[in-house]
Amino acid sequence: MIKKQFFAIFLLFLFVNNAFAWGCHKVYCGGNIKSGEESSKNSIEQAYAKLYANLDELRKQYEKQLEQITEQNKLLKQRKALMQKDLMDTKEIIFLLKKFNSLQNNINTLEAY
Predict the structure, then answer these.
(1) CA 22 to CA 68: how far, in whole Å?
(2) Which of 30, 37, 55, 105 is the least buried, fewest Cβ under 10 Å from its Cβ?
(3) Given this model, what pLDDT does residue 15 score?
(4) DSSP classification of residue 25
(5) Whole-model pTM above 0.85?
(6) What is d(CA 112, CA 27) in angstroms, rounded to the nearest whole number?
(7) Distance CA 48, CA 42 (A)
(8) Which residues of 81-112 are buried (b: 16+ CB within 10 A; e: fewer)?
(9) % pLDDT > 70, the chain
(10) What average pLDDT does this structure show over 9-13?
(11) How far is CA 68 from CA 30, 57, 59, 64, in A?
């Protein structure tokens, strides 16, 4: 009889224990959340740092190209001014040659009489 009572108590203990084992329990996961927040925050900060480094490099390249383009524009304007001066000189020479030829033609005509 004691064996039956002991066995019944044992079975009751197993059922009660299993009920508690599979029942709802509050599990504190604040540490996991905190570590997850910290790792996420660190990865985001690293990504932002990399992004800002890339932006700074891009800004430096932009400034360098802007300097080069400004210098090229300056040289282009100088070349344009020289070409315009050369064109004006060429037009002046052509004008003077035409006048010289006209005068030479008049001289030749006068000599012919």
Answers:
(1) 73
(2) 30
(3) 63
(4) -
(5) no
(6) 127
(7) 10
(8) eeeeeeeeeeeeeeeeeeeeeeeeeeeeeeee
(9) 74
(10) 67
(11) 57, 17, 14, 6
